[in-house]
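U., I forgot to send this yesterday:
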Amino acid sequence: MNDPLPSRITGVRPLWAVEGARLTILGDGFSLDPLPDIRIGGTSARLASASSQALNVMVPPGLDGGRTSIRIDTAPGETAYVEVGAPLATGLHQVDNPAFDADGNLYVTFSGSRGQDTPISIFIVRRDGSREPFINGIPNPTSLAFDPAGRLHISSRFDGTVYRIDEDGTSKVVASELGVACGIAFDREGTLFVGDRSGSVLKVSNGKAEILATLPGSIAAFHLAFGPGGDLFVTGPTLGTHDSVYRISPEGRVAVFYDGFGRPQGLAFDDAGRLYVVDALAGRGGVYRFDAVGPASGGAEGPQPQPEQLVAAGGLVGLAFNTDGTLAIASSDTVYLLHAGVRGLLPFGSLIADR
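Result:
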């Protein structure tokens, strides 16, 4: 009897992942009896399902991160690669995106359960991975955003307040009585927008809030990001079987941008104007990219865009781009760092210089 031909690897989807995520290895002639031994970065990976043309495997823990090899014992001489995100910070409680400053420091939260008095509200994770306490005394810190002048703002879902952190590290109330204040973002004029998860997107001027748009209420949090054309993009998981990414014009007109996610959460734009959205649906969660969002919508209808999955990861809540091309992705308790080669879109009119 002739020996079977060796297997061949033709690709990996997606090309970025973190520990515990599911990858698909594509190829030809994969052995099913016996099942192949698959190693990612030299560590044996658990096989979730298999066919002769696709192997679904789980990324093992404890990898160093970076460009990591994938090898199969039945495909001698064949090697594929995946970019693995290494844990940068653990023991957190994130609800929304972390945030990078101009120097590449990452700000993360310990939000805690509702009303919980936590010793530290915000931590700074330095470029070398060291973590330092930054701010305390803000109850349930929820969302982080820098204004165009580079000042950090923090929302509290507990007291419905947005705080600004001044250079000396003290906090100042910018606006209050904002409901269950979650996602925050700034437009090109530096005006603050806040998502009240009970169902309102608020525009805040001189400390006074008015309703810009009304959306279905969220069971978790609203997440906000401005696109390069000036439209505001919003997500907010509900109890439905699927949820939408909404697009809101400057005049407050609401349109569904995409309705194919199961539990969309944090979102951000890169400097090419491409939209990245975290979907936390069990089994196929990760980061998805829309290569184009089109011109400012004005509520106009058009064909629904289709996203590409870039990162395999379960249970994510947010993401943030650094100016050096790295990408931080956050679960509720861990932030991972990926060398993505993609830079984020800075706030409109930002005074933050490229580093």
